[in-house]
Amino acid sequence: MATKLIFFTGGVISSVGKGVTAASVGRLLKARGFDITIQKLDPYLNVDPGTLSPYQHGEVFVLDDGSETDLDLGHYERFCDLHLKKTSTVTTGQVYEEVINRERRGDYLGGTIQVIPHITNEIKRRIDLLTRSTDADIALIEVGGTVGDIESQPFLEAIRELRNDLGRENTAFVHITWLPYLRATNETKTKPTQHSVRELRSLGILPDMIIARSDFPVEKELAHKISQFCDVREEAVIPLVTADLLYEIPLVLEQAHVADFLLERLKLEPKQPTKIQGWKTMVAELKRHKPNIKIGLVGKYVELHDAYLSVREALNHAALFYGVDVDLQWISSTAIEKDNIQDVLVGLDGILVPGGFGSRGVEGKILAAQYARENHIPYLGLCLGLQVMMIDFARNVLGLKNADSAEFDKLTPDPVIDLMLEQRGLVQMGGTMRLGLYPCNIKPGSRAEALYQAEVIQERHRHRYEFNNEYRQKYEENGMVFSGVSPDGVLVEMAELEGHPFMMASQFHPEFLSRPNRAHPLFLGFIQAACKKAGFSDQPVKLDFTN
Question: Percent of the chain having pLDDT more than 90?
């Protein structure tokens, strides 16, 4: 069977929820026994988001193969429990780069290069590559941006052509829009949605389904109006009221029979009875009122919570398994100083320092690691979080007062964190870090072994700097355990402190592999320690989220 394609477009405003909607539909199709894959078409000219500031685009999500991607790929993987590859992320920059490289090689035999057909053909080739490389039953394709944006037009033209190329029975179009609410008149307005669909139709795309986002309940009359003016079947106009919990969206769409409608549209029959009870159990547990544990996330992008989206979700996944809620305190590392640290970090049940780059706020992170160590507060460090833990230990335990990372002080006499050998001499910034899935050997008898229950693990990385092995012996002599190392023994991947309730850190990013129904071991250990610190039970809740 040829792979069926479902395209997701957005209208009215940006950030309307296309990624979560696509991920939710993917979850419902998977629950019916279909093999699925997902792809994001991003209309920006960057080759990938790897060099973008988190303030611009939220977190950079890393795949197994090292691809640096949009945060929507995180939604896809978490909701659908997938391990995606580089074929799942396409940017305008990648498309134009490929076409221009071909032109320079002479592949076009001197022809004039145009958006149509050369750019659109390359977009279609990349969609075809996705389907051929995964052999999925159904591929879900999200078009980034908003209908009407000039940047998105080549992608929209490409998917329009694909309906003609593949046939209507093999393609479906879902349009996600926003219904604004006017408080002055107490009205929810459909006109922007009508204009959005009109724009889409002017490009030759007729949506099969409209998902109408709103902050307020949508009356049946409004759904009928949208159906009438947008020429979409009334049962295919799906009101979607903003939910407090993202993981509730698949259940809302299931109640609206979204998956059944799309399967009918694609002339497919479910492969199995819908298996969604485990998801329902999980959502019910997430919504249940539970005691709070207070976790301080110490970062420098805390004003934009999406900069740490996967970390936040991984904390919530782990908390679910211990029957608690996370009261997440967003603490700016730039605000932490020696004279106020007690006031800023008081009352926390755990401290987490996530990844990051650059010197801004790093001294505040070092102080946070020191505070957690000296006050026996559970600590989890991720990537840079491991590095600042090492710097604190060097300065305040080993007596190396000027110890630092070579990233922040190239002249430090004690570079306990240094640039990796293979990173030296690199000029190009994009896509050149140590990226993707790498193996790690676990030290027998360590806390890491107890958590992972494994001798060898695989984790995703995104870094240039590593612990300096010249100092390894001195650390070990003073109670630091290097509980995870690369198979050749060269790279420190995990460290933990003897005699501390929980002080662990990883050079990799475990948050990228956490799933709502399968929390990551490091986060489970951290939340367990935080529960104990708060005086709660540290025994996991016995619930089945898998069926």
Answer: 84
